[in-house]
């Protein structure tokens, strides 16, 4: 396994940040096309082998669990 150097990590972080700033300037319609959706990170208790276990999950506004999205988003 090849480790990444600090210099490579910083360079890739700067490149990703620059892409996040430059791409919306090039194509602003792509940013405006997506409507925001509100999801909550919630906890619930499930039964695992007869014992209670607290798990985290995503809950959509209509009450369904999980996250479903299209490839375009």
**Rounded mean pLDDT score:** 80
Record field, number of beta strands: 2
Shape: flat
- Which residues sit in consecutive blocks of at least 5 with pLDDT less than 50? none
Q: Work out the strand percent.
A: 15-25%
Write down the Rg: 19 Å
> What topology, given as strand order, has the largest sheet?
1-2
The main β sheet shows up as: 2 strands, antiparallel
What is the N-to-C order of secondary-structure elements (H for helix, E for strand)?
Answer: HHEE
Q: Which class best fits the helix and strand makeup?
A: alpha+beta
Number of helices: 2
Written account of the structure:
- The protein has 73 residues and is an alpha+beta fold.
- The chain folds into 2 domains: 1-33, no CATH class; 36-73, no CATH class.
- It contains 2 helices and 2 strands, in the order ααββ.
- The chain has helices at 6-26, 28-33, and strands at residues 40-48, 51-59.
- Strands 1-2 form a two-stranded antiparallel ribbon.
- It is flat and about 50 Å long.
- The mean pLDDT is 80.
